[in-house]
Amino acid sequence: MVTTAERVLAGDVRAASRLMRNIDDGDPSATPTLQELFPRTGRAYVVGITGSPGAGKSTLTNRLIAHYRRQGLKVGVLAVDPTSPFSGGAILGDRIRMQEHAVDDGVFIRSLATRGNLGGLSRATGDCIRVMDAMGLDVILVETVGVGQDEIDIAQMAHTTLVVVVPGMGDDIQAIKAGILEIADVFVVNKADRDGADRMVRELRSMLELRHAIKAPPMDHDAHHRMVIAKAHGTHREEEKGAGEWEPPILKVIASGDQGVDALVEQIGAHRGWLEQSGSRQARETARARMQFVAILRERLLASAIARLERERGQLDEVAGRIARGEADPYALADSLASQLTR
Amino acid sequence: MVTTAERVLAGDVRAASRLMRNIDDGDPSATPTLQELFPRTGRAYVVGITGSPGAGKSTLTNRLIAHYRRQGLKVGVLAVDPTSPFSGGAILGDRIRMQEHAVDDGVFIRSLATRGNLGGLSRATGDCIRVMDAMGLDVILVETVGVGQDEIDIAQMAHTTLVVVVPGMGDDIQAIKAGILEIADVFVVNKADRDGADRMVRELRSMLELRHAIKAPPMDHDAHHRMVIAKAHGTHREEEKGAGEWEPPILKVIASGDQGVDALVEQIGAHRGWLEQSGSRQARETARARMQFVAILRERLLASAIARLERERGQLDEVAGRIARGEADPYALADSLASQLTR
């Protein structure tokens, strides 16, 4: 009998789709297949595309698909939308816009809409990247909506992360906070024919300069604790710093008019080249693996802990009710469950 | 000797600030104080304010502070910014804008910038809300940037959640996805003097109607699993549905010109009244407690699991390196750690 994993490895779109749906649903039956696929992955190049809603990420993704297709590469697109409760992803959205590629069998587009899932979005994204990788896709574009912690986590799963901004979105550059600066390998100022595009470029440049000027905080007694935490979260990229800094380029693009997209593709290639030559590729792969592992671990732990809690103390809702009425101490309960892990 | 908890209960700003800084840092020394404060909380009314960057949330928060102060209420503001890596919160931001209230000792403003913290943002937010509650503040405004899963989690910690949108932010209502619809108790169309404000109101109204039209998906073998997960995450509000629906009002506001803010304060009061009268308040308190407990639990579990992993298998980075090289299986590792909890 042919296993699901074998079908996926052979590029079977229906098998891969079904598997990804199970991953999105948090169905534990996906795990053995993922374990079987795992050693056969690691070939695809993953590009993250993030930025605020309305920044034109889908249009840009569309253009990138077209460019990579012209190079003869097979392209996967994973549209991650944590705010949509409908399976199948965004309501009005990504799929419709990318319909021009729907009949191209060198393009595989899927949406993830995991929610209410105990932080399962990062885990599901990591797993789906693996599936697309196993299918033999050359480039995987991971598009995320929003600028929250989840999006930062997901950006850590990419080799190259594009941060897309548009002129005049906020009142100032409030929209581009420092956490975003840190994850950006390439900045895209989209809709660059709008007023304020040059100002946006200048502001981004000063923020990048500001970043260099900021010194590391002095070490104190909490420093180790914080560093362990930051490392676990994969937000720690200092291992790349020694190997010759990558200066994130800032590119003006008009995705709707296909202007500047060639230059963008070139810069993605340049970043890839830098990762290889500087020896940072390995550090980046480790960071990706760490992020994906932590995402899997976090979800498994919480599911197991809640199962145990419900066995010993009653349904989660009853426990929460007792906490709300001040009859149970949430800190003591959490510590008692977590202590099982340190024994 | 006077404990930190006693100081906080007496409204000591310095003690509360120090405690909140420790909470933000993930310093475990905060826990005993939180446990001591816990039974003394539950009086404050918590209003969440969320929306995309540039929607004018800080200006609106400012106006709300002024309105509540005129009613003689003590106001706390917690500005949550997951994208800022600098302790002290946003670089150019919230604090500066709220400076007009800086010398008013009936107003207590703090930023949270927790990051790289294993999903610690939700936990830190819940804990800081408790501290502000214990200080005797009457209304706590929790302002979040972004529209990711973390922001949805944090919204669950409020009694009333405002979703702030502005006309012309995205190309269409792409910016307001259904997950946001579900958490909104009141919609604020800010900068309502801009073109497209009425269209935005109409579009929001149709999305709300669409929501009513969408039927629940049929139950299948995974339904129970998914429901447990959704319940754990606190995204399950069906307990409120029976008690007479709350229809989220859509308000046009110009925060910068203080227009429409009275009506907004009134609607927040109306929602509060509805929570009480419909009996939904208790369900909402349970949902809040559940979200806060899950946030505490998630962080504790991951910290303990990583400590165990590092004791048994080497530093997380080494383990991640082995995963990246295909020498270790992340699913098996996660399951082996999680299995300690189900024994």
Protein topology:
The structure is a homodimer of 343-residue chains.
Chain A: H1 4-9, H2 13-25, H3 30-37, E1 45-51, H4 57-70, E2 75-80, H5 94-97, E3 107-112, H6 120-134, E4 139-145, H7 149-155, E5 160-165, H8 178-183, E6 186-189, H9 197-213, H10 223-233, H11 238-241, E7 250-252, H12 261-277, H13 280-313, H14 316-324, H15 330-339
Parallel strand pairs in A: 1-4, 1-5, 2-3, 2-4, 5-6, 6-7
Helix pairs in contact in A: 2-6, 6-7, 6-13, 12-13
Q: How would you sum up the global shape of chain A?
A: globular
CATH first level of the domain at 42-280 in chain A: which class?
Alpha Beta
Mean pLDDT of chain A: 82
Oligomer: homodimer
Number of strands of chain A: 7
CATH architecture of the domain at 42-280 in chain A: 3-Layer(aba) Sandwich
Largest interface, with Cβ-Cβ < 8 Å?
A-B, 109 and 108 residues
Trace the largest sheet of chain A across and list its strands: 3-2-4-1-5-6-7
**Percent of residues in beta strands of chain A:** 5-15%
Low-pLDDT residue spans of chain A: 84-94, 215-231, 233-243
Predict the CATH topology of the domain at 42-280 in chain A: Rossmann fold
- How many helices of chain A? The count is 15
What's the SSE pattern of chain A? HHHEHEHEHEHEHEHHHEHHHH
Rg of chain A, rounded, reads 21 Å
Biggest sheet record of chain A: 7 strands, parallel
Fourth CATH level, the homologous superfamily of the domain at 42-280 in chain A: P-loop containing nucleotide triphosphate hydrolases
User: What structural class is derived from the secondary structure elements of chain A?
Assistant: alpha/beta
How far the N terminus sits from the C terminus of chain A, by CA atoms, comes to: 43 Å
